[in-house]
């Protein structure tokens, strides 16, 4: 039972971190835990803006869905629904999302304008969200970790106990193998 608590604690500590990967020009891959806060940076921001009045943020939840404008020239868009109270823009025109949910998974793009014309290349941010759930029965506790992504899942989820990988042959742990949905039962 103590080992299970360590596994859970290690996972929460690890998942509490925000993982960012930079790949190519103006493209970021960010993974954050659900319920967390994330800041999506906008590259190539023009310095002569007043309150990001030349910056627009778009969001697409999947490859087959048209992008929706979240921020129009520094102002929160009218059609962002329940996201509006969770969105804000920093002084450097980065997009801040509070209380992240799986509905926030997707592709975010930041576009700069000057005199009505697009400046530079779009800054792209692919946001993935990690969700942890716990289910308790009389003598069992099941932990499930899932990763929701915009594209095909490229993440490998690994269970860790006191900085060591939890082996699928561990006497007190059963791991069901799946690239994004392993479970631990005790």
Number of strands: 15
Strand content: 35-45%
Structural class: mainly beta
N to C succession of SSEs: HEEEEEEEEEEEEEEE
Helix content: under 10%
Cα end-to-end separation: 8 Å
* Mean pLDDT across every amino acid position: 75
In terms of per-residue confidence, which ranges show pLDDT below 50 for 5 or more consecutive residues? 6-24, 176-183
Write the layout of secondary structure elements.
Layout: H1 2-15, E1 19-22, E2 27-33, E3 38-40, E4 55-60, E5 68-72, E6 75-76, E7 87-89, E8 95-97, E9 106-114, E10 117-136, E11 141-148, E12 160-161, E13 164-165, E14 174-175, E15 183-185
Parallel strand pairs: 2-10
Antiparallel strand pairs: 1-2, 3-8, 4-5, 4-9, 5-6, 7-8, 9-10, 10-11, 11-15, 12-13, 14-15
Description:
It contains one helix and 15 strands. The protein has 186 residues and is mainly beta. Strands 1, 2, 4, 5, 6, 9, 10, 11, 14 and 15 form a ten-stranded mixed β-sheet that branches. A three-stranded antiparallel β-sheet has the order 3-8-7, with no helix packed on it.
């Amino acid at each position: 039972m103590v080992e299970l608590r360590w596994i859970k604690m290690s996972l929460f500590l690890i998942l509490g971190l925000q993982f960012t990967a930079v790949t190519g020009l103006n493209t970021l891959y960010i993974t954050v835990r659900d319920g967390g806060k994330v800041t999506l940076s906008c590259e190539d921001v023009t310095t002569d803006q007043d309150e990001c009045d030349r910056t627009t943020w778009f969001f697409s939840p999947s490859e087959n869905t048209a992008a929706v404008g979240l921020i129009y020239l520094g102002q929160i868009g009218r059609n962002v629904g329940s996201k509006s109270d969770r969105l804000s823009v920093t002084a450097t025109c980065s997009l801040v999302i509070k209380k992240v949910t799986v509905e926030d998974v997707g592709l975010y793009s930041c576009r700069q304008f000057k005199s009505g014309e697009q400046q530079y290349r779009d800054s792209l941010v692919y946001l993935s969200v990690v969700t942890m759930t716990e289910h308790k029965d009389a003598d069992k506790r099941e932990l499930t970790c899932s990763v929701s992504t915009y594209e095909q899942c490229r993440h490998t989820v690994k269970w860790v106990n006191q900085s060591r990988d939890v082996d699928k042959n561990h006497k007190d742990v059963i791991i069901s193998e799946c690239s994004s949905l392993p479970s631990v039962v005790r």
